Automatic annotation (TrEMBL):
Domain of life of the organism encoding this protein: Eukaryota
InterPro entries found in the cross-reference section: Doublecortin_dom, Doublecortin_dom_sf
Ligase found in the keyword field: no
SMART domains attached to this UniProt entry: DCX
Keywords, in A-Z order: Repeat
Biological-process GO terms, alphabetical: intracellular signal transduction
A single GO cellular-component term on record: microtubule organizing center
The name this protein goes by in its record: DCD2B protein
Doublecortin domain location: 13-95, 131-213
Natural source organism: Alca torda
Length: 227
């Protein structure tokens, strides 16, 4: 191939993509080659599959200011981006391990929600006074588990916890009526919750035993390495 032909081929770009609003996803590396991805949509489809996005990725944003990337040629080599569907860009400190939102926000149920990403400051370490759990949605093999940080210093009211789970899980069947372990056994109280463990939010329907962890937690995800 002539030097002129080589010059016509655009160089590959290395980028890292995060999941919108996910404080634990460590980012997935992509090599963007326009021979492989002929269109921006083709690249977004690949991102959807690779990051296990709960909905199809339709937008990429810059991580600090949320500027939308319009086309494949706008991607910059060595840069990071945030993948989203049609929802709004959610501001997090995506570029630092242990990304978190506002510290110590208290929700309407009176449960103290600590900085969910703070676990990442030391792999395998713990944050004093904070317990962190991960919750799947019953029968849903498209949505990754959502983090549930709870303060150890605040008395845990089980009804309030179920109400919080109802709001966060947004089950098709409606309210969350019970919380199950991955083997299907039901958790009957807050004292049975194990810090760092995975659970399944269930409505009125029966628990559906599915490979939630195997399919929805990426092999290199901080969900696995932190605990």
């Amino acid at each position: 191939m002539s030097p002129r032909g080589l010059a016509l081929a655009p160089p590959a770009k290395n980028v890292v993509v995060y999941r919108n609003g996910d404080p634990f996803f460590p980012g997935r590396k992509f090599v963007v080659n326009q021979r492989q991805f002929l269109t921006f949509e083709a690249f977004l489809n690949e991102v959807t599959k690779s990051i296990h996005a709960p909905l199809a990725v339709r937008n990429l944003y810059t991580p600090r200011h949320g500027h939308r990337v319009a086309e494949l040629g706008d991607l910059q080599d060595g840069c990071q981006y945030v993948a989203a569907g049609f929802e709004k860009f959610k501001r997090l400190d995506y570029l630092n391990r242990g990304r978190k939102e506002l510290r110590g926000t208290r929700n309407s149920q009176g449960l103290q929600a600590g900085p969910a990403g703070e676990k990442g400051t030391a792999l395998g370490g713990s944050v004093p006074g904070l317990s962190l759990f991960f919750v799947f949605r019953n029968g849903d093999l498209l949505s990754p588990p959502f983090p549930l940080p709870l303060s150890k210093s605040t008395p845990l009211q089980w009804d309030a916890l179920l109400a919080t789970l109802t709001e966060k899980a947004d089950l098709r069947s409606g309210a969350v009526n019970k919380l199950c372990r991955l083997d299907g056994t039901q958790v009957s109280g807050g004292e049975e919750l194990v810090n760092g463990d995975y659970y399944v939010a269930v409505g009125n329907e029966e628990y559906k035993k599915l490979p939630y962890f195997e399919l929805l937690v990426p092999q290199d995800s901080v969900y696995k390495t932190l605990w």
